[in-house]
Amino acid sequence: MEIVKMLRQGFSRHGFSIDSTTSSEEALSRAETGHYDAAVVDLVMPGHDGAALTAALRKKIPGLPVVLLTGFTNSPLITAAQRSGATVFTKPVPIQELVDFLRKEIG
């Protein structure tokens, strides 16, 4: 997916180590075995939606900062993701805004 490639390149340019997948199931599998300081997920994705993925990731890694990207401005899934601890950004969002947020969250 093009947005995954853009985010990977943008975060890499700012010094972040990136692991990416377009599958919520793959993301959950990797969370089982890897070390992650944050997650950036989309609201609409193959497998689980971003709200369900947020809840599952934060259950596996309590306190994990999760950025939820969405093109929607009003959806029950956004509310569900926020209740699970995600911070929501509406697309398009400048990479610098995401970088600044993640640096603040992970130190």
Task: Give the arrangement of secondary structure elements.
Elements: H1 2-13, H2 24-33, E1 39-42, H3 50-60, E2 66-70, H4 76-83, E3 86-90, H5 95-106
Parallel strand pairs: 1-2, 2-3
Helix pairs in contact: 2-3, 3-4
Using brief descriptors, characterize the structure shown:
single chain; 107 residues; alpha/beta; Rossmann fold; 3-stranded parallel sheet; 3 strands
What does this structure look like?
- The protein is α/β, with parallel strands linked by helices and 107 residues long.
- It has a single domain, classed as Response regulator (Rossmann fold).
- The protein has five helices and three strands, in the order H-H-E-H-E-H-E-H.
- A three-stranded parallel β-sheet has the order 1-2-3, covered by helices on one side.
- Helix 2 packs parallel to helix 3 and helix 3 runs parallel beside helix 4.
- It is globular, with a radius of gyration of 13 Å.
- The model has no long low-confidence stretch (mean pLDDT 95).
Summarize the biggest pleated sheet: 3 strands, parallel
CATH class term: Alpha Beta
Q: Tell me, briefly, the overall form.
A: globular
By CATH, the topology is: Rossmann fold
Give the distance, in angstroms, between the N- and C-terminal Cα atoms: 29 Å
Count of helical stretches: 5
Q: What's the structural domain tally? A: 1
Strands of the largest sheet, in order across it?
A: 1-2-3
Low-pLDDT residue intervals, each spanning 5 or more residues: none
Helix and strand content put the structural class at alpha/beta
SSE string: HHEHEHEH
What would you give as the CATH superfamily? Response regulator
Tell me the number of strands: 3
Overall mean pLDDT: 95
CATH arch. level architecture:
3-Layer(aba) Sandwich
